[in-house]
Amino acid sequence: MSPSYIQNVDIHEGEWGTVGSVIFWNFTHDGKEKVAKEIIEEIDEEKKLVKFKVSGGDILEDYNSFYLTVHVETKGEDNIVTWILEYEKKSCNVPDPHTLMELCLNITKDIETHHLN
Q1: How far apart are CA 15 and CA 13, in angstroms?
Q2: Which positions fall inside the Bet v I/Major latex protein domain (predicted)?
Q3: How far is 30 from 58, CA to CA, in rounded Å?
Q4: Entry pTM
Q5: What is the pLDDT of residues 28-53, one digit of tens each?
Q6: Which domain, by its residues, includes 16?
Q7: In terms of DSSP bridges, do strands 63-75 and 78-89 run parallel, antiparallel, or are they unpaired?
């Protein structure tokens, strides 16, 4: 759905869509190939919310901790997607993850395009 940004996604432990599962991502960020290992921390189907904890990979070179939460709110026929990035920088010299947020938004747009086709 988003081959420009996500090259591969594999589950390493657990099952898709279950809390505690470990997912390994190969993706492109800022024009460079990156990897991330994430643990599904929370799934709330009623609220349409999933929270991931980054437990390994390139993102943790700059951050002590990094969490991504995606929430979908349905209003009529529209779905509003909200991304929340929670992080602790390793130093004050580390930039805020604006380009990672842009990556999340671009992936969301690709998913929307896929579903509309």
Answers
A1: 7
A2: 3-117
A3: 12
A4: 0.90
A5: 999 999 999 999 999 999 999 999 99
A6: 6-116
A7: antiparallel
